[in-house]
């Protein structure tokens, strides 16, 4: 038995309760990582995956999955903030905010919570051995075959329904993976989307990398980009990312091959957003907000509790989220408007409308200038996972789970029409970027 078995099993019990499922996921993580410390990586990522439904752990019912995972990693497992960010696939800022919000929701502090969590796993019962002479292989194989058959039928039905729904359009064709080449030198390629591959080496060594897909279906490896973030300009000709080698934020201009240095600070603190015209880059670092257009200048009105959420249409102002809600500020720091409702997605880039999206149904509600409810015209077997970003004042991109011609759709807020986006990524990778996302 692995030296890490008991520790991984205790962590799983805090995430999924003292259930057979939690124990199974702990054992699976250890098998996947050959009994090494990397099993924690698999465990946390599976817990936060939208494709896994973990049972109620019996504590912290007011917490989100991310808040619970962060609290367990920091105050039970003893990971640092940076290690927790890597384990959960989030930025350090997101981890910090999730941890603080989780402690507030529980009404406690880190020291007290650490004692509580240790007490919860202190008397974890021993694993019961499987009864001898019982052979479940045949039954398990039959169940697997039945599930595979049902999924095949569901997929074919969804594909037929989707093609009928989008009659008059060219049918969606899956993209074939091409050879993976480095992104180097001048090129006329236009980027269609990008995805992140998480590939740890040993311990918590970071082996993650980004792959960009061009309009001609090339797969290009962005060798120098860290996994913390990567943004694509609306025209698909520029990339902004955190450089591994320089430890700086850089902008890579594909047509010229030129790489411009933006700032020299801890890359993990940045949030990057291209303006709608692609000429400027907004980023937050060390509780300060900056805009770069060849020169860098600071935008006032940004504090320790603030988060940059992108640009308004036209690039005249930036959207900032903090403890009091969402507000729009121009480049001089003047507040143009604000809303106290930070639970909704938005405001939209038009600055006058925002939406609320229910996770239990494929519908959204518009508020502000264009109030009303509308259904998203998704395939019958596709369900909303989350809103990825805004691509204009009238469209937003969502990711889905289930079956259909794509896992990503562009939604029109006037009609609810869902246009499948041809993004072919490995099955377990859902960190995807599209051009112009804000």
Automatic annotation (TrEMBL):
Q: Cross-referenced InterPro entries, in alphabetical order? A: 6-blade_b-propeller_TolB-like, WD40
Q: Where does the chain cross the membrane?
A: 138-155
Record keyword Membrane present: yes
UniProt keywords, alphabetically:
Membrane, Transmembrane, Transmembrane helix
Q: Which domain of life is it from?
A: Bacteria
Note whether Isomerase occurs among the keywords.
Answer: no
Q: What is this protein called?
A: RNA polymerase sigma factor 70 region 4 type 2 domain-containing protein
* Organism name: Microbispora triticiradicis
């Amino acid at each position: 038995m692995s030296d890490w078995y008991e520790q991984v099993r205790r962590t799983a019990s805090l995430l999924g309760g003292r259930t057979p499922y939690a124990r199974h996921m702990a054992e699976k993580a250890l098998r996947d990582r050959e009994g090494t410390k990397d099993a924690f990586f698999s465990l946390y990522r599976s817990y936060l995956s939208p494709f896994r439904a973990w049972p109620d752990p019996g504590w912290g019912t007011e917490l989100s999955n991310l808040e619970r995972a962060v609290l367990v990693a920091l105050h039970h497992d003893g990971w640092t903030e940076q290690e927790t960010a890597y384990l959960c696939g989030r930025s350090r800022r997101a981890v910090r905010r999730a941890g603080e919000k989780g402690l507030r929701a529980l009404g406690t502090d880190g020291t007290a919570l650490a004692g509580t969590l240790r007490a919860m796993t202190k008397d974890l019962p021993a694993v019961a051995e499987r009864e001898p002479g019982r052979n479940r292989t045949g039954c398990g194989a039959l169940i697997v075959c039945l599930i595979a058959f049902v999924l095949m039928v569901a997929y074919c039905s969804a594909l037929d329904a989707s093609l009928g729904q989008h009659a008059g359009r060219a049918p969606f064709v899956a993209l074939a993976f091409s050879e993976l080449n480095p992104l180097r030198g001048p090129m006329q390629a236009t980027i269609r989307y990008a995805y992140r591959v998480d590939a740890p080496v040993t311990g918590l060594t970071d082996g993650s990398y980004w792959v960009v897909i061009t309009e001609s279906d090339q797969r290009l490896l962005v060798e120098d980009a860290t996994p913390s973030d990567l943004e694509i300009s609306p025209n698909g000709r520029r990339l902004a990312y955190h450089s591994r080698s320089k430890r700086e934020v850089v902008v890579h201009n594909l047509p010229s091959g030129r790489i411009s240095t933006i700032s020299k600070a801890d890359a993990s603190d940045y949030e990057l957003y291209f303006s709608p015209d692609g000429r400027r880059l907004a980023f937050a670092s060390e509780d300060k907000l900056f805009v770069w257009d060849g020169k860098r200048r600071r935008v006032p009105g940004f504090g320790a509790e603030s988060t940059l959420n992108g640009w308004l249409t036209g690039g005249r102002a930036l959207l900032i989220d903090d403890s009091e809600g969402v507000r729009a500020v121009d480049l001089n720091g003047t507040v143009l408007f604000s809303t106290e409702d930070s639970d909704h997605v938005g405001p939209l880039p038009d600055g006058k409308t925002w939406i609320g999206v229910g996770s239990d149904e494929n519908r959204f509600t518009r508020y502000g200038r264009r109030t009303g409810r509308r259904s998203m015209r998704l395939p019958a077997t596709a369900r909303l996972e989350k809103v990825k970003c805004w691509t204009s004042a009238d469209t937003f991109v969502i990711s889905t789970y289930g079956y259909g011609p794509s896992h990503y759709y562009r939604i029109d807020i006037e009609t609810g029409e869902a246009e499948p986006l041809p993004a072919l990524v490995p099955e377990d990778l859902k960190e995807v970027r599209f051009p112009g996302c804000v």
